Amino acid sequence: MDFKQQVTTALMGVLGDSLPADKVAQLIETPKTSDLGDYAFPTFILAKTLRKAPQQIAQDLVAEMDQAGFEKVIANGPYINFFLDKATFSDQILRTVLTQAANYGQSDLGKGGNVPIDMSSPNIAKPISMGHLRSTVIGNSIAKILTKVGFNPIKINHLGDWGTQFGKLIVAYKKWGSEEEVKEDPITNLLKYYVKFHQEDVEHPELDDEARAWFRKLEAGDEEATKLWSWFRTESLKEFQKIYTMLGVEFDSFNGEAFYNDKMDGVVNALEAKGLLQESRGAEIVDLTAYNLNPALIKKSDGATLYMTRDLAAAMYRHDTYDFVQSLYVVGGEQREHFNQMKAVLKEMGNDWSDEIHHIPFGLITQGGKKLSTRSGRVILLEEVLNDAVNLAQQQIEAKNPDLPNKEEVAKQVGIGAVIFHDLKNDRLDNFDFDLEEVVRFEGETGPYVQYTNARAQSILRKANQEVAMDADLVVSDANAWDVLKMLGNFPDVIVKASQEYEPSVIAKYALRLAKAFNKYYANSKILADDDQKNARLSLVKSVSTVLEASLDLLGVQAPKAM
Fold it and tell me: What single-letter DSSP state applies at residue 353?
């Protein structure tokens, strides 16, 4: 049963035509504490229409209202506070969670619509650093959340496998590299060459001319350039895959920038046919003054195409291939202008579907308040961070539970899960500094805290050693359980909110609140006491574990049964 709908119905019974039902539903609030009720309706909006003080309106409406199905309904100043029938709520919520199990919170909002998600997208021949973590795990979590509400996400790793950096890398490799070094440790040595190039070109700017020349050869299909490019790409992908396996992230497509080489002429031709291309200082642009944006640069004066041309080709290819209902780009906030320009150009071309393209920006992970940069060599390798996190988790498991079976596997689930959870608990647009020891703590607002809470619930169920009897009533009358029950009931709404805002932190923060509420309940209640409510209490424990595991899964975090 939809308990918010029950409140809306009760209000509509006394409001008449004063407000439409959808507006009433929007205005219903959830009080901060349960002693103020479970739902509240503010009457300020009715003061002008009814020509009464909000406090008086609240009292009059409560006096007229049919309160059947509620424990009580009271006027509290300008608010009407609704207290749900706890027995009915408890039985219905627990029965729903246990019956639907992993499907609890699922919906068909998306009606199977395709949603390409451009995510991760590292540059070939450079290591996956902490800077790539956000795009990867945010994109992966959004895909899971969208699946839960009925969309069909298509995860695209738009690899940085083309561009002038390959000219630079070829020059660097030919000057300072060796085949043996690359074979021995591809990414480390390719990065070393790339960094050396940028150190040397400060004193020797002619290196940039050499790099441009090599990239032109690559564009023209030169055999040596193509062979080196292909080799760098293959070796890089092998290294990338190791990290994606650790993170538990899979992709539906690895079509990167090179894939669109033969599709850009079509974009340029279409822009010319529609009279949108203009010459500016020898370059070709699309004027976006009407959108209050800088012009979009389509071709440089030397005829070379740019990121914009390539991204326009990619957007059009994805629309033609997937017939998407939305198309998402999980890319850092500094690219906001670029995506605004891209959408505006597509709109000018007559593609109204560009309205369904959404840039999903995010803030930076910093170290000591400074941005991480590959070019300067100040880079934190993601694989090293994940391995360090696993080691820290293992140390804590050894200290807390040295006899735990599968310690190594649990340490991986906890350590890697901690890094993912820490990223996703932060509001997507926020910058944050990364401190590994804080991230992997078992206490506080961390992934391991949520995992440990779930493992505790599982431990209680193992000790009880009995199945929940679904033919008995599932009424938990313990006052300490009420906040937990209400939070379980909120889970479907939390998922919808996360999907609409493309915001995994909504799920992570919910998981932390639920874990905290359950631990408070656990500390104040004798769950395994042999009385007539033991079955109902176990149904609550099992429901909490079900929802915590579902929450962690939506974030891409595993849930060990014991820790």
Answer: G
